[in-house]
Design a protein that fits this description.
about 375 residues; alpha+beta; three-stranded antiparallel beta sheet; 12 helices; 14 strands; about 35% helix; disordered N terminus
Length: about 375
């Protein structure tokens, strides 16, 4: 996933964090992204993935190292994107099992104390892992000595003999990124509204640009648009431009020597298309005066070209184990489909194919077919 989590200038005001559902949930992020997140400058102990504030995460991975102390276990958990340290505190009642619960009970007689002892022993064994075991851990994030760690609130060994738990999570995580984590947090509140208007109470250009981007994204997704030209979508931005000028309190129209309505719309659309291109949502297959844009997720020819290329190259010995690196995929697709395809557009297409189970990421920036 994207690792450009941004700086403090992208942080929404702390009073609005509660509006983001990610803030109160255990975020199921890749370990790579957890390690790269930046800590908030407003509140220590809060971290940001893009502009989503969070402090709790859930990780599922293989134990690759283990240390035991009197009060806690220290497990290194690897989810195939990175390794993170997890501090898992021992339950105090485990230490007293031998004395507080006696073995006993005659055969054939239900013994509450014996059953309680067995239950505690089962609980204890599920929290004592060895290298190679699968661990699910939930907890809060902490940075200690410049090392990111998880302070576990709950953890247990997962029995997964046929890997159904791991496969289900592998399919779930990309969808969570797509539907939630990679979508910007849009806070609602007076602080945000104040920042979207100028001194005269009129929307400023950055505010209009943000609204314009959201309008076009929604339109392209709902209508499943595959290709379009600027004049096809220009009308969508008309409501954002205030024209004719507002009347003053005296009833007289305020005239302005600024750009015309048409010029304002065209400038806004031009900047909007630049943002959508930089995000990889759209691209131009052929650079021509026609100015035709392809919508990445709806370009079936592009998706088929990527899928076929990965399928064929994954059969080669060089890519059989790890899969094809994203730069190799980009080079091949540019040769066979469009020299103007950007890496951002390719990554959007790869994410779409992975969410649809057409391909799978085997490790950081490597892909193969299922």
């Amino acid at each position: 996933m994207a690792s450009d989590q941004g700086g403090s200038e992208d942080e929404p005001p702390s009073l609005l964090w509660g509006q983001d559902p990610v803030f109160s949930a255990y975020a199921r992020l890749y370990v790579k992204d957890i390690l790269q997140m930046k800590e908030s400058l407003q509140v220590p102990g809060i971290y940001f993935y893009k502009n989503h504030p969070l402090f709790q995460v859930e990780v599922l991975g293989t134990v690759v190292y283990r240390r035991e102390r009197e009060d806690f276990y220290c497990y290194g958990v690897d989810d195939s994107t990175g390794v993170i340290n997890c501090l898992c505190w021992k339950d105090e009642k485990w230490r007293d099992d031998g004395d507080s619960v006696k073995r006993g009970g005659s055969g054939g007689v239900f013994n509450v104390e014996e059953q309680l002892r067995k239950l505690r022993e089962t609980q204890r064994s599920s929290c004592m892992l060895e290298i190679g075991d699968l661990l699910r851990v939930r907890g809060s994030l902490k940075t200690s000595r410049e090392q990111r760690e998880i302070m576990a609130s709950s953890f247990y060994k997962v029995s997964d003999p046929v890997m159904d738990v791991q496969i289900a999570r592998m399919l779930e995580i990309p969808q969570l990124y797509r539907d939630c984590y990679d979508k910007p947090f849009q806070a609602l509140g007076s602080e945000v509204e104040a920042s979207t208007t100028d001194a005269g109470g009129h929307p400023n250009f950055q505010s209009l640009l943000g609204q314009s981007v959201r309008i076009l994204k929604k339109f392209l997704k709902e209508k499943e648009v595959a290709k379009f030209r600027p004049y096809d979508v220009e009308y969508l931005l008309h409501p954002l431009i205030q024209w004719p000028p507002r009347n003053t309190a005296s009833g007289q129209e305020v005239t302005s020597a600024g750009p015309s309505f048409s010029t304002q719309v065209k400038n806004l659309l031009k900047e909007t298309l630049k943002i959508l291109q930089s995000e990889g949502e759209i691209f131009r297959k052929v650079l021509s005066p026609d100015e035709l844009y392809n919508v990445t997720e709806q370009d079936k020819d592009l998706l088929a070209a990527i899928r076929d290329m990965i399928r064929e190259d994954s059969k080669r010995e060089k890519y059989a184990e790890k899969g094809c690196h994203v730069l190799h995929i980009l080079s091949s697709v540019r040769q066979k489909y469009s020299r103007n395809l950007s890496r951002e557009a390719l990554e959007v297409a790869l994410k779409f194919l992975e969410c649809n189970s057409d391909i799978i990421s085997t490790m950081d920036s490597h892909y193969t077919v299922l």
